[in-house]
Amino acid sequence: MRIISGKFGGRKIQPPANMPYTRPTTDIAKEGLFNILQNNIDFEGASTLDLFGGTGSISYELASRGARQQVIIEKDPAMFAFISKTVKELGLQETIRVVRMDVFKYLDSCTDQYDFIFAGPPYALTTIDELPKKVVEKELLKPGAMFVLEHTPRNNYQGYTWFVQERNYGTTVFSFFINR
User: Dihedral angle at the C-alpha atoms of 2, 128, 37, 23, nearest 10 degrees?
Assistant: First the structure.
């Protein structure tokens, strides 16, 4: 796993060998995602929320590009420990707050708004369709802000509130939502 661009660009991060509940976003899909985001989001100083943090890869990329107020939600104890360790190694303790909690419990209690939200849930998550609904219902995006949901081609979010487009990278699809 590597950080693509920015302050930490090219840096490799070695996730744990045994990650039974984690499926890191591939470098190809992540590169495609950040090519789109780079043209639509000003990362400098952005506040971000990373749901289902996994390895933390998306948030490290955001921090590398200038995001300054970040929250990562991860309930798995091993992945929470890995993210916390990596945040410390990268010197991002002032930038990234890691919360060990169920994503839906966090969303239900959250009153903050963000410039960018990313959700890369396990593909087998049966409640995945609730994520865009919760983001809208709880008004978690600032006006003009973006939410990206990573999912498989079997899910379709066209017609959901704030949906604007999707991009397909084989077995990985990103659906984009903007608070308009």
Answer: 10
Q: In angstroms, rounded to a whole number, what is the distance separating the alpha carbons of residues 97 and 33? A: 23
Mean pLDDT of 127-148: 97
pTM of the model: 0.94
Q: How far apart, in whole angstroms, are the C-alpha atoms of residue 177 and residue 180?
A: 9
- Angle, helices 57-64 vs 27-38, to 10°: value is 40
* Torsion, Cα of 67, 16, 22, 170 (10° steps): 80
Q: Which residues are bridge partners to 118 per DSSP?
A: 50, 148
Mean pLDDT over residues 80-96, rounded?
96
Determine the Cα–Cα distance for residues 86 and 105; give it in Å rounded to an integer.
Answer: 25
